[in-house]
Amino acid sequence: MRMPDELRGFAHKHKGSDMDRRQMLKHLGVASVSMAMLRLHEALASGSFGNAAGVYRIRGDVRVNGVQAREEQLIKTGDRVATGAASEAVYVIGRDAFLQRANTQVEFPQGGDGLLVQSLRVVTGRLLSVFDKGDKRLEVPHATIGIRGTGGYIWTEGDTTYFCLCYGVADIVPTADPAQQRTVVTKHHDSPFWISPSHADGLFKPAPVMDHSDAELKLLENLVGRWPPFYVRASDDGYAGGGGGY
């Protein structure tokens, strides 16, 4: 998987320690915090906090089941969401919210009443997700991930899948060797890694925190009326807080 050019040198230079991980978080936040927090301000100002349904934001070419998507369109299980180049979609299904980046295809297998996500499949690309309580199944090309009320980022490309459990609990079963399954518990981006059958030193390889931010997690959680567990709300403005490093 190719790391973005602006992050490659930084990841190589700051590799390893907990302090380096915090530096990476701050570095990543600079590029994305302004736009994500602007969207959060818009949601709060419009009264849509916790009331989003379907497609909340579209940029570029976004298609649902092959048809151009529109804002406020309802997405349900059984649907397939695809983004083109330089495109992005933010959407809510039930009590789960998603930020889907460019050149990404995500499938939501049929299940429940159509608005309860029981599983999803990231065919290719990058997806940031926050989930309500309850067991969910995430399928990626190189693993099956069982989660319970978490936030996580998936980037799958070629023979490698990147996974950051931003917070919560996940059971990861690699497709190439299920015996190497592991349970990960994190509070704040504590253990991201790459999963790949081509790694000479094992299926799992430690990775930096990359390509997603706390501001984006706040946006998604706010759309379904929640706050990330690492976030402490301030009494004066209702959303400024600590714990995220920004």
Keywords:
246 residues; 16 strands; two-stranded antiparallel ribbon; Jelly Rolls; alpha+beta
Topology, element by element:
Layout: H1 5-13, H2 18-45, E1 54-59, E2 62-64, E3 67-68, E4 80-83, E5 88-93, E6 96-100, E7 105-107, E8 119-130, E9 135-140, E10 143-157, E11 160-174, E12 182-186, E13 193-195, E14 204-206, H3 214-223, E15 232-233, E16 241-242
Parallel strand pairs: 8-9
Antiparallel strand pairs: 1-5, 2-3, 2-4, 4-7, 5-6, 6-8, 7-8, 8-10, 9-10, 10-11, 11-12, 11-13, 13-14, 15-16
Helix pairs in contact: 2-3
> Secondary-structure element order, as H and E?
HHEEEEEEEEEEEEEEHEE
So, CATH architecture? Sandwich
What would the principal axes of the Cα set say about the shape? globular
What oligomeric arrangement do these chains adopt? single chain
Any idea what the radius of gyration is?
A: 17 Å
Helix content: 10-25%
